[in-house]
Automatic annotation (TrEMBL):
Pfam families (UniProt xref): Mutator
Start and end residues of each Mutator-like transposase domain: 2-104
Source organism per UniProt: Nephila pilipes
Name by which UniProt lists this protein: Mutator-like transposase domain-containing protein
Matches recorded under InterPro entries: Mutator_transp_dom
Domain of life the protein comes from: Eukaryota
């Protein structure tokens, strides 16, 4: 919950609303499980959106898209950003790319 700026009390409330057991005190293991589930769901959803867009275009894979990007902060001080590709015909997200000026591989080695 700290990843979204909430504390233990918010986690307890969330678990009670979702009819889940009380949250553990250490979330690292569960964050990885949630990340994997979110990635799988996201990828499945985007594959389905591509199929819908191709069907909408009578089987042609040359589809119209809108591309939009954003950084976490204005100016050149932001280290995190995202780019999304959305089908113009269906309005569904076809692809997402996370951008970072921070090298995670080097920071993990140190």
């Amino acid at each position: 919950m700290r990843c979204i700026g909430k504390g233990a009390e918010s986690a307890v409330m969330f678990c009670s609303i979702m009819n889940l057991p009380p949250p553990p005190t250490k979330f690292t293991k569960f964050n990885n499980i949630l990340l994997q589930a979110a990635r799988e769901t996201c990828e499945e959803s985007m594959v389905e959106a591509v199929h819908e867009a191709v069907e909408e275009n009578d089987g042609g894979r040359d589809i119209a898209v809108a591309v939009d990007g954003s950084w976490q902060k204005r100016g050149f001080s932001s280290k995190n950003g995202v780019v999304t590709v959305t089908s113009v015909d269906t309005g569904k997200v076809i692809d997402v790319e996370i951008l970072s000026k921070h090298c995670l591989i080097l920071s993990e080695k140190n």
